[in-house]
Design brief:
Blueprint: H1 3-31, H2 40-48
Length: about 60
């Protein structure tokens, strides 16, 4: 590896670290506290096309 290759590798590493830091900052600022409530019956109906049959524990 000559000097130009090492310089390019260093620049790419710095750019990737900066990009990762920016993405983490955006996630931390905007996404971290967001929650999506999931209704299990609605999700099952969406995936299976029908309501799930409730199971009754045996006595």
């Amino acid at each position: 590896m000559d000097l130009r290759d090492r310089f390019l590798l260093r620049k790419l590493a710095v750019v990737l670290v900066i990009k990762l830091a920016v993405l983490m900052g955006l996630w931390w600022g905007f996404v971290r506290d967001q929650r999506v409530p999931v209704d299990t019956d609605a999700a099952a109906m969406q995936m299976l096309g029908s309501r799930p049959v409730p199971t009754v524990p045996e006595e």
